[in-house]
Amino acid sequence: MRWVPGHAGVHGNEEVDKHAKIASESELNNSPNTRLPRYLRHRPLPLSISALREAQSKSIGIRWDHSWRHSPRHHRFDQIDPHILKRSFIQLSANFSKRLTSLYMFLRTGHAPLNSHLFLIRKTASPFCEHCPSVEETVHHYILAYPLYQPSSLPFILTDPNATPHLVRFINATGRLKATLGEIPLPHTLAS
């Protein structure tokens, strides 16, 4: 037995396919209703389930994109990772431990156990940094202006896989998040 393509090489097949496509895409090119079987003449033709799923998926994607762009969180996340809707964080964190993924989520959302956030949820008396008493201890301050660390770019630190070992070493060295996250291990692919 040999596999033979269905209509490959059959004279006129490409022409028939072209006309079938034109007919299926335009109301003007369809046959008159009188040429349809009687049970299909007075109601719409049945729709393909796969076409319905595709249309539904596209519609949901458009609505989600619109909702996200009008969300109050969009501006903050877009500054850190403009490709977040293209699964960039999932790709970045694919080899992360649960603890390291939690750290990244804390830092990206601003809900890190730092004084600025802890003060908002009434878990500390002051939002200010212990080392810089006149400055709120935010993620930005902790990562970029902390007296023990060399400044960099927050989007780079929170999106580039090459920055992960440096971030983990910094977080572990400061000990500031140890009470919540413990010692953060490096991802397996970066540990060597």
- Spell the H/E element sequence: HHHHHHHHHHH
**Strand residues, percent:** under 5%
Provide the residue-averaged pLDDT: 82
The low-confidence runs, each spanning 5 or more residues with pLDDT under 50, are none
Question: Between the first and last Cα atoms, what is the distance in angstroms?
Answer: 53 Å
Query: Which structural class best describes the helix and strand composition?
Result: mainly alpha
> How many strand units?
0
Helix content: 40-55%
The gyration radius over C-alpha positions equals 28 Å
Q: What gross morphology would you assign?
A: elongated
Number of helices: 11
> Major sheet: size, sense and barrel closure?
none
Write up what this structure looks like.
The chain has 192 residues and is mostly helical. Helix content is 50%, strand content 0%. The chain has helices spanning 13-25, 49-69, 74-80, 88-92, 98-109, 115-120, 139-145, 154-159, 164-174, 178-181, 188-191. The mean pLDDT is 82.
Summarize the model shown.
Helices cover 50% and strands 0% of the residues. By secondary structure, the protein is mainly α.
Which helices and strands occur, and which strands form pairs?
Blueprint (H helix, E strand, L loop, with lengths): L12 H13 L23 H21 L4 H7 L7 H5 L5 H12 L5 H6 L18 H7 L8 H6 L4 H11 L3 H4 L6 H4 L1
What structural keywords apply?
single chain; about 190 residues; mainly alpha
